[in-house]
Design goal:
Helices cover 35% and strands 5% of the residues. The protein is mainly alpha-helical and 77 residues long. A two-stranded parallel sheet has the order 1-2. The radius of gyration is 21 Å and the shape is elongated. The model has no long low-confidence stretch (mean pLDDT 90).
Length: 77
């Protein structure tokens, strides 16, 4: 078996799966590719540019913040 996700993260060093010869364990980081880093940088920088230009960034996690008076002021200009 090849595993990269466990019910408890980080995996307990005493987990019996870690002692098995037929089990391969890797960190849960499969998505860390060049494309992933490129997309994170591109969308992150685009969000900064949008905010500085007074536009709502594409990826706002807490959209309720957009109703805050100070944020409305930033995005109006």
């Amino acid at each position: 078996a090849a595993l990269d996700v466990f019910e408890q993260e980080p995996v307990d060093p005493a987990n019996p799966l870690l002692a098995m010869d037929n089990v391969l364990v890797t960190p849960h980081s499969l998505c860390w590719t060049d494309e992933c880093f490129h997309n994170m940088a591109t969308t992150g920088l685009a969000s900064i540019v949008d905010a500085l230009a007074g536009r709502v960034p594409e990826f706002v996690v807490n959209r309720e913040v957009l109703a805050h008076p100070r944020v409305k002021g930033w995005l109006a200009g």
